Amino acid sequence: MVRGESKNAPSMADVAARAGVSHQTVSRVVNGSDAVRGDTRDRVLAAIEELGYRRNKSARALVTRRSGRLGLLYSQPHLYGPGTLAASVHQAGQRAGYDIVLSPVPHLDATSAEGAIEALLDDAVEAVLLGVSHQSLEDLVAQITSTVEVVMIHSDPPEGVRSVGIDQRAGAVLATQYLLDLGHRTIAHVAGPVGWIDARQRREGWLAALRDADAQPGPEIFGDWSSRSGYEAGAQIARDPSVTAVFAANDSMALGVIRALHEAGRRVPQDVSVVGFDDVPDAAYLWPPLTTVRQDFASLGELAVEVATKAIADGSVEVPPLLQPELVVRSSAARRSS
Amino acid sequence: MVRGESKNAPSMADVAARAGVSHQTVSRVVNGSDAVRGDTRDRVLAAIEELGYRRNKSARALVTRRSGRLGLLYSQPHLYGPGTLAASVHQAGQRAGYDIVLSPVPHLDATSAEGAIEALLDDAVEAVLLGVSHQSLEDLVAQITSTVEVVMIHSDPPEGVRSVGIDQRAGAVLATQYLLDLGHRTIAHVAGPVGWIDARQRREGWLAALRDADAQPGPEIFGDWSSRSGYEAGAQIARDPSVTAVFAANDSMALGVIRALHEAGRRVPQDVSVVGFDDVPDAAYLWPPLTTVRQDFASLGELAVEVATKAIADGSVEVPPLLQPELVVRSSAARRSS
DNA sequence: CGAGGCGATGTGAACGCTAACATATGACGC
DNA sequence: GCGTCATATGTTAGCGTTCACATCGCCTCG
């Protein structure tokens, strides 16, 4: 920015003076009121253009007592799911006429989440979207729900809370059932960390599918969503020859499992089948291409914004049905050989 | 939010009444002025606590004529690099006392970038950080630079523009030189798409290292950063037996190349060596573990915020030295066999 | 031809805060 | 004991909007 070049930004009054009307008429034009004569409107529009006028959102927010902002809290912003979610919420918000305040929390814990929510509240957001379904947030929600509208993005929401979600449990059932259909009986699970709702739901889906098929749960190892933890889990699983299939709670861990299996000399999928969760863009181009469960983060974000705007409009507490994930069959899982 | 429960949010005047002081004294307390007696301060603080008072940022911004906001434009928000950058900018901004407005642009083109910048300007950001180094933005920059402070995140910035960056060219030289040292003479390059500065710089680094070693450039294929495009490039490369090494412009494409090589029966690294760029968290757990070039996105974000805040404070145009990337040796590249 | 009404525009106040200045209170020196 | 000064606090105005209402023409109709 060149110093001294620009004085104060022009205000409505400046535009009004230039167009020879009152500031209120400018306001009407800017807000699309139809009570302005065509030629007057044109004069105003021309003045706006000439001066490079921009409506001051702070002044507007002050007098209307509405910020026009929605906040999204999300963690692990470097990962595919959260990143996609953030982008889709942002886009849907724009379309709905809201500004989206993105609040990434690199490492989730109760303190940092609380701090992030405080910041969002300081920003006067009209609703908070909770893009991270972790147990530690459920208590927090109760506290802020009297202050601001809240939408949880959650596959197993507490009673009476506004929420949207993807059916994690159903996705896990899809994956496990597929493995069962392939003839596998001992299916290990590399779970996400304790405390994460999605991890719990995926684990329950695995368990439920097994139960329905009268199969015993295979070994279960808890990871932390990272490929490193998947690798460590895989190394352990590789030592157990009875395991012929692994369901990993996300694609990163699945990929770690596959590497560990490779290193142990067990072929995927000939010796051990592996299924992941998420369908990250790279999943299709791993070796072998990863069979996984796809979640539609884009729709999730749109839905969340929709529910939030409705909540702001009429306070309704609406819980649309969970979105259904989809099994994407590639070649990391195959019929049980022996 | 429970309807009817909360009336209007308390203002300074409410706090002042409760504490038995004037609103100005409340303002002083809130802003940490030391011209307030200890016991008065305590009374005010107590009133703030009791009423749950929050300072209204809009009113403050209106009167101070400063929004306290920095905007970050970034694309491909689902990818590791941009996601990490966004998070680190956000964090650094908080620390520096600025609110960060994150503006993800899913698919970059001149129109959407322009729209996003307009939105940022409407939000009255005091500086715009351009987190996407694409040619199409360079013209845009010239237009807005008179309106707002701009910081480009760019490894080869135009003259006189404030910027920070990571030395992409040096990273590519590192990768290529490593391959050369391993005895490879025909090194292919899977480049990023035309128009992306980083892609250009990496390609130039590859070319420069080759030139210095008196080696002829191997085949060159342009991808689009995706693993799919890497796969397609890899399939092509696999047909050329003279190629014994590939330098891919990012990890996703590298992973696609590896799969294509596998499918063609060419082993990595025994037959063909592959080096990527970025060091995404999964890179270390691919099979084989990917040798790649690590960029420090976290430091990049911090640096960008630092330069932006300085620019706002005194208008200085500072271009700190490029950050240096680092070669991470794993096992997807090996000494040339024959 | 004047009352009534409607469409287009203007006026004044208020939103919650900070900046600038004004005032009160007490300590101190002569 | 009174001016002087520093320290603590209060008062007023104004930031750029929108809202509620006032005004001004002009047309319609009995």
Automatic annotation (TrEMBL), chains A, B:
Parts forming coiled coils: none
Domain HTH lacI-type per the UniProt entry, residue ranges: 10-64
This protein's record includes keyword DNA-binding: yes
Keywords: DNA-binding, Transcription, Transcription regulation
InterPro entries: HTH_LacI (IPR000843), LacI/GalR-like_sensor (IPR046335), Lambda_DNA-bd_dom_sf (IPR010982), Peripla_BP_I (IPR028082)
GO molecular function: DNA-binding transcription factor activity; transcription cis-regulatory region binding
UniProt cross-references to Pfam families, sorted A to Z: LacI, Peripla_BP_3
CDD domains the UniProt entry points to: HTH_LacI, PBP1_LacI
Keyword Cell membrane: no
Protein name, as recorded: LacI family DNA-binding transcriptional regulator
Organism: Nocardioides turkmenicus
